[in-house]
Every structure is written in C-alpha cells, then in structure tokens.
What does this fold into?
Amino acid sequence: DAGVTQSPTHLIKTRGQQVTLRCSPKSGHDTVSWYQQALGQGPQFIFQYYEEEERQRGNFPDRFSGHQFPNYSSELNVNALLLGDSALYLCASSLVGVETQYFGPGTRLLVL
Amino acid sequence: DAKTTQPPSMDCAEGRAANLPCNHSTISGNEYVYWYRQIHSQGPQYIIHGLKNNETNEMASLIITEDRKSSTLILPHATLRDTAVYYCIVRNITQGGSEKLVFGKGMKLTVNP
It folds into this structure.
C-alpha cells in the first residue's frame, strides 16, 4: 500500500521564479492538505483540497495556489518566489469521515 | 496559535519508557488530542489520537486526564530510532470537514544508549 508521495524531493529556484510541487495521496484518500515548514519551526497550514475545491486556507498570500485532480492528486504552485519561501513543503492526505492526516516525505525548496 | 504546551526537550534511556507530557487546558468537548513525531528532515509521522479515553496502538499509549486538560504519550520501550520532535496537537473534527493541524514547536526527545 503506497503511502503519500511527493515530487521532486529537492528543488533550487531563484527569486521571482515560479515552482510547482506535486503530491499523490495515500491509496483510498480523497483529501490533500499542504503545509510549509521553515527551518526549526513546526509545519504551517497552507490549504486543503477536497473534491477538487479549496476547502480551507491558512494565512498565506495569493502567490500560493493549488489544484486537485480527479484522481485526488494535487499540486502546489508558488509564484514570484521570495527568499523566505525556502522551506520544506509537506503534503498530507486523509479520508473524509476518518480525517487522520498522513504526511509525505516533503519537498525541500531552496530559493536563491 | 497552537493550543498545547510541551516542554522543549526531554532525554530518555534506551529501553526505558518515555513519558511525554502535554498541556491543553483550553481544550473543548469536540477536540481530539493528536500526536505526531518528526524525525530529522522527514515528514511528520502519525502516532495516535484520542478524545477522552485512553488509547493504545502498536506504537504508543495515550493517557488523557479525566478533565482532559493534559495528556501523556507513552513509548513503552524507547529505542534510538524514537529520537525525534514530538508534536501534541488539539484538533476539532466535525461532521463534514476537519480542522487543519496546528503545530507548535513540539518537544525534542533524545533517546540515549
């Protein structure tokens, strides 16, 4: 049973560029949440997708956007990258009605 | 803001039980207590959760006080691989949707040989 997978594992971008991160949920899960984890901090909630709609959103600017596909996989897009966007980006999946979130290994983004 | 308070760090000897405390004095009736851990540079790993009864699974036990204002995660026989940051999270789960996980700074558990 495959767990949550994320790609790529690492990424280096420069300021002003755009980035797309991908997530495949655990088999049987229908909800995907994204978190940002800066060095030395706990993960911070970005947004959550269910039935291809954004269901909740944290305190992140509109430069952060997402999408969920019919197969429940998801993308996180960040535009106009800033140095402060350097972080570990985590995807978590869950099943409506059960709700326990399971995390992927993350994508480490470095913005230069 | 996180609704829980944990000590910043704790040490434990390998093979001994590790008892990790968490205070959540403002918890409400429909909020669960969740525990996750994060080994360096990996994604958080779900451990256990509970509402008011004590819970046990293959990884750990969760003891919640009767007033629900605090809880303890117990790792019965700590190993070096249990060294990680442990997060105690209070989370509302309601019908039709679930609240996001709000992480604090967590507690660093170091298991020593």
Notes: The two ends of chain A are 37 Å apart (CA to CA).
